[in-house]
Structure to design on (94 residues):
């Protein structure tokens, strides 16, 4: 994408899960994400199931259900929106 060239975010397509994890770690650092980042298998089975390309945030609840589905990136990828959802959804303790 042109925006990737402008922002200097250029990687060769990973061919192994190890290469994919390296790219994900770089993305996490660059975006200063503090939440866990999960990497799809090299066959993209999760991406295909959730329409997550090129990036997307999902929050899965304790029962394994998708509780929050962010919009597709890159322009809909908004970690701060997911953080706000988490804060609003976390039970308050007194």
């Amino acid at each position: 994408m042109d925006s990737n060239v402008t922002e200097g975010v250029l990687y060769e397509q990973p061919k192994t899960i190890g290469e994919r994890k390296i790219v994900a770690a770089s993305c996490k650092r660059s975006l200063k994400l503090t939440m866990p980042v999960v990497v799809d298998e090299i066959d993209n089975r999760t991406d295909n199931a959730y329409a997550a390309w090129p990036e997307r945030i999902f929050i899965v609840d304790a029962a394994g259900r998708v509780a929050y589905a962010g919009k597709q990136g890159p322009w809909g990828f908004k970690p701060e929106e997911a953080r706000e959802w988490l804060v609003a959804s976390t039970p308050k303790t007194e």
User: Anything to note?
Assistant: The mean pLDDT is 86. The two ends are 48 Å apart (CA to CA).
